[in-house]
Amino acid sequence: MTARGPWYITRTAILDYHRIATGSVDEPDDEQFAAAKESLVDALKIAHHVRHRRNGLDLWRLQGSPRLRLLVSTAQRPEGDLPQLVRVLPEHD
């Protein structure tokens, strides 16, 4: 399952974002998941590219609260031509 915003967004990326934004390790219910997806799509409007990594993923950053690192795959996907946001990580692990 992928959500669509400026990129295709994986379920894992939405769960990462929910975990970081709420501090919860529990699986979100449908309402919480939808809210996290909407909030993430909105936040992505101000993301900026940092660099291409050797592992084939692009690193993007999201300034704001919380500050986040975004890992984006530019590999061609069956879903279409958009890159895919595969992980959302805190600024510092």
What does the model show?
This protein has 93 residues and is α+β, with helices and mostly antiparallel strands. The protein has a single domain (2-90), classed as Nuclear Transport Factor 2, Chain: A, CATH 3.10.450. It is built from two helices and six strands; from the N terminus they run E-E-H-H-E-E-E-E. A six-stranded mixed sheet has the order 1-2-6-5-4-3. Strand 4 (57-62) and strand 5 form a beta hairpin. Helix 1 (11-22) packs across helix 2 (30-43). The longest helix has 14 residues, at 30-43.
Q: For the largest beta sheet, what order do the strands appear in spatially?
A: 1-2-6-5-4-3
Number of helices: 2
CATH second-level architecture: Roll
Low-confidence stretches: none
Average pLDDT taken over every residue: 87
Gap from first CA to last CA: 27 Å
Pattern of helices and strands: EEHHEEEE
* Radius of gyration over all CA atoms, rounded: 13 Å
Q: The CATH topology, please? A: Nuclear Transport Factor 2, Chain: A
Level of helix content?
Answer: 25-40%
Q: Which structural category do the helix and sheet elements fall into?
A: alpha+beta
Beta fraction of the residues? 25-35%
Provide the domain count: 1
- Overall outline: globular
Task: State the major sheet.
Answer: 6 strands, mixed
Give the tally of β-strands: 6
- CATH class placement: Alpha Beta
